[in-house]
From TrEMBL:
Keyword field: ATP-binding, Nucleotide-binding, Transport
ABC transporter domain residues: 6-229
Protein known as: Lantibiotic protection ABC transporter ATP-binding protein
Organism (species): Ruminococcus hominis
Family: Belongs to the ABC transporter superfamily.
Entry's Gene Ontology molecular function annotations: ATP binding
Pfam families, alphabetized: ABC_tran
InterPro entries in alphabetical order: AAA+_ATPase (IPR003593), ABC_Gallidermin_ATP-bd (IPR022501), ABC_transporter-like_ATP-bd (IPR003439), P-loop_NTPase (IPR027417)
Length: 234
């Protein structure tokens, strides 16, 4: 049995009187792709922000590599949440040089991550002139700079055309063989079904389902069933 690289235990996040995340407990296996599914506003991004330390949990725990999460663990976690943090007037290399300096990462890492995301031939072209898919891949390259064991991607295919989605899918699918575990949030069921090893379905802040991805299962029916049940229980 594969060991878990990340677990959340009864994770909760309240915003005033609203419970955005309610006792969510997930288990992410090492060197796998975990798809966190849910409608818009379900609590996916809030959960990921707590895992990356962007938000402090109201209660519950995040466990990373067998111990309670602490800020030092960010050295082993990369994340792309919401829009890629790019300087649009800089090239891909220059964007990575800025981030490498902040992280105190060797410049030799820049060529490696550019090759990983297939942006090694963009030359002096400014990031502002990149396609949406190229910007997403550059955002992922930035998240990979610190050689993370865990990569968190929040709705990475948003706004991409079919070719961009296909390229990103192939890229994400390659990560576990490189020793990188991926947590991927999405509301696009077909995409997650193609690449995920395990899935969790969250709705109204509650995790209604978690299990291994069965490629023959009707994921849409399962998703609708979980979401409807959570709505009935509100």
């Amino acid at each position: 049995m594969m060991k878990a690289i990340l677990k959340t235990n009864n994770l909760c996040k309240d915003f005033k009187k609203q419970k955005a995340v309610n006792n969510v407990s997930i288990t992410v296996r090492e060197n796998s792709i975990y798809g966190l599914l849910g409608p818009n506003g379900a609590g996916k991004s809030t959960t990921l922000k707590m895992i990356t330390g962007m938000l402090r949990p109201t209660s519950g725990k995040v466990l990373f590599n067998g111990h309670e999460w602490n800020r030092k663990d960010l050295e082993q976690i990369g994340a792309l949440i919401e829009t890629p943090p790019l300087y649009e007037n800089l090239s891909a290399v220059e964007n990575l040089e800025v981030r490498a300096k902040l992280l105190n990462t060797p410049k030799t890492r820049i060529d490696k991550v550019l090759k990983m995301v297939d942006l090694q031939n963009t030359g002096r072209k400014k990031a502002g002139q990149f396609s949406m898919g190229m910007k997403q891949r550059l955002g992922i390259a930035i998240a990979l700079l610190n050689s993370p064991k865990l990569l968190i991607l929040d709705e990475p295919t948003n706004g991409l055309d079919p070719i961009g989605i296909q390229e990103l899918r192939s890229l994400i699918r390659s990560f576990p063989s490189k020793g990188i575990t991926v947590i991927l949030s999405s509301h696009i069921l077909s995409e997650v079904q193609l690449i995920a090893d395990d899935i969790g379905i969250i709705s109204n802040g509650i995790l209604g389902y978690e299990g291994q991805m069965n490629k023959d299962e009707n994921l849409e029916n399962l998703f609708v069933e979980v979401v409807r049940k959570s709505q009935e229980e509100r």
